[in-house]
Specification:
Helix content is 60%, strand content 16%. It has 425 residues and is of the alpha+beta class.
C-alpha cells in the first residue's frame, strides 16, 4: 500500500482506496445497525419483526450506498489527492473561457486548466479532419478519444468552421487513469471552448467588415475632398487672371508685377498636397491674394486682420478662407464706388474655432444670398469640405444687409475631425 501510494497515488486512490473506504464505511454502518438490532429484537429470523428489520436494513443499505460512495470519492479527491472537484473546475473553465478575447487565449486556458487538474501535459494544435478516422470509429459527434487505457486523451473542439483545434492530454502523473466522469468533463470543455471560438470568430468577422466599410467611407470622403479642393484652384485662378486682364488695359506696368505675384502664389497653392494647413499659412495665402487685388482696387480695398498670434498654429482645412475673401471682394467691394474694408477675425472657444469674414461692401437681401450660396462655387465648396472633414460638428452661417456689407462665419472643432484616415491613421 505504501509503495502504491508513493508511486501511483491516483491509481491507488481511484482503483482501490475509494472503493475500499466505501465498503468499510458501509459494512461498519450495517454491523452497527445489527449490533443495535439484535439485543432489541433477537436473532431469530423466523420472527417477522426480525425479518422485517433485516429487509429494511438491506433496502437502506442499497439507498445509502451511491451517495456514500460519491461523498467518499469527493473527500479522497479533495483531502488526500488535493485536486478540485469537477464542479469547481467547470466553473473556473467557464469563467476563464468567457474572459478569453482570442482563439489562442481559449486554447491556452483549456490547456492550463486541464493540465493542472489532471496532472498531465497538454498540447494544443490545429486538427486535420483526415485523422478523425484514425482515432476512433465513434462517429462524427465524438470529441474525446482515450488512449493507453485511459492514461491520456485527445480532445477536439468542433467549431462551426475550420480551422478546428485539438488538445492532447498525456503523461498523467502517478498512474492516473481517466474515469467516465473525467470524459464527461472533457466533452463539456470541448463544447464550451468550441462555442466561444465560434463567437469570437463572428465578432472578428463583424469587426473586419466594419473596418472595411469604414475604410471605404474614408477613401470616398478623402476622394471627394480632393475633388472639391481641385475645384477651388481653377476658380481662384480664373478670378485672378481676370484681375490681371483688367490691369493689362488699365496699368500695364503693374500687370507684370501682379503676374509674377500670381505665379508665386499659384506655386504655393498647387505645391501643397497636405490635407490640412495652419491658420497662419492660410492667412499668408489670403494676404497674398489681397495684394494682387490691391493692384486693381488700390486704396478702395482695405484689410483688417484680427487673428491672435497663438492661434496661427492651429490646423485647418486648406483654402477655407480664400474663397470667402474672394467673394467679399467680388460681390462686396467691387460694386462700391468707394470700396470698403474686409475684416478677418479668429476666436477659439472650448475647442471650437470661429472664423469670421465680413466686409463693408454692397451686401444683399435674402434671395440674393441664397442665389449666391446655391449657384456659386466658393461658398458651396467651403460648406461641403467642412462637412467632409467635421460632419455635423461644423457650420457655415451667412448674413447680409443691402448697403451694409455681409458676414460669413465658420465654426468647427480644431482637435478632432471625422476624417481619421487623414489625421490619425
Amino acid at each position: 500500500f505504501v509503495i502504491l501510494y508513493q508511486e501511483y497515488r491516483f491509481a491507488f486512490a481511484d482503483r482501490f482506496l475509494k472503493r475500499a473506504l466505501s465498503i468499510i464505511v458501509l459494512v461498519s454502518m450495517a454491523m452497527g445497525a445489527l449490533v443495535l438490532l439484535v439485543p432489541a429484537l433477537g436473532s431469530d429470523l423466523s420472527d417477522p419483526r426480525v425479518l422485517g428489520a433485516v429487509l429494511s436494513l438491506w433496502i437502506l443499505t442499497a439507498l445509502v450506498s451511491p451517495a456514500l460512495t460519491r461523498a467518499i470519492s469527493r473527500g479522497v479527491d479533495r483531502w488526500l489527492l488535493g485536486r478540485d472537484g469537477h464542479g469547481d473546475l467547470r466553473a473556473t473553465l467557464a469563467r476563464r473561457i468567457e474572459e478569453a478575447d482570442t482563439s489562442s487565449q481559449v486554447l491556452e486556458v483549456v490547456a492550463e486548466e486541464i493540465g493542472r487538474s489532471f496532472g498531465g501535459e497538454v498540447e494544443s494544435s490545429h486538427f486535420d479532419e483526415q485523422r478523425r478516422a484514425d482515432l476512433s470509429s465513434g462517429g462524427p459527434e465524438q470529441t474525446v478519444w482515450l488512449s493507453a487505457g485511459g492514461a491520456g486523451a485527445t480532445i477536439l473542439a468542433v467549431t462551426a468552421e475550420e480551422p478546428r483545434f485539438v488538445w492532447r492530454l498525456g503523461s498523467l502523473s502517478e498512474g492516473r487513469r481517466l474515469a467516465p466522469d473525467d470524459v464527461v468533463l472533457l466533452e463539456w470543455t470541448s463544447l464550451a471552448a468550441a462555442r466561444r471560438i465560434d463567437r469570437l470568430r463572428v465578432v472578428h468577422e463583424r469587426y473586419e467588415h466594419e473596418l472595411r466599410e469604414k475604410e471605404m467611407r474614408k477613401l470616398a470622403t478623402e476622394a471627394e475632398l480632393r475633388v472639391l479642393r481641385a475645384q477651388i484652384n481653377p476658380h481662384f485662378l480664373f478670378n485672378a487672371l481676370t484681375t490681371i486682364g483688367h490691369l493689362i488695359r488699365a496699368a500695364p506696368d503693374r500687370a507684370l508685377e501682379t503676374l509674377m505675384n500670381l505665379t508665386e502664389l499659384l506655386r504655393r497653392v498647387l505645391r501643397s498636397t497636405e490635407e490640412t494647413t495652419s491658420l497662419g499659412e492660410e492667412l499668408d495665402l489670403v494676404l497674398a491674394y489681397l495684394d494682387i487685388e490691391r493692384a486693381r482696387f488700390e486704396e478702395r480695398l482695405r484689410v483688417d486682420i484680427r487673428v491672435p498670434s497663438e492661434l496661427r498654429s492651429l490646423r485647418i482645412p486648406p483654402l477655407i478662407l480664400q474663397p470667402l475673401v474672394e467673394n467679399a471682394v467680388k460681390h462686396g467691394i467691387a460694386p462700391m464706388r468707394d470700396g470698403g474694408t474686409i475684416r478677418l477675425e479668429a476666436v477659439l472657444e472650448d475647442g471650437t474655432l470661429r472664423l469670421r469674414v465680413d466686409n463693408t461692401g454692397a451686401g444683399g437681401g435674402d434671395k440674393t444670398l441664397e442665389g449666391r450660396r446655391g449657384e456659386g462655387v466658393g461658398l458651396r465648396n467651403v460648406e461641403e469640405r467642412l462637412r467632409g472633414y467635421y460632419g455635423d460638428d461644423a457650420s457655415l452661417s451667412f448674413s447680409s444687409t443691402p448697403g451694409s456689407g455681409a458676414v460669413v462665419e465658420l465654426c468647427f472643432p480644431v482637435a478632432t475631425a471625422v476624417m481619421v484616415s487623414v489625421h490619425d491613421e
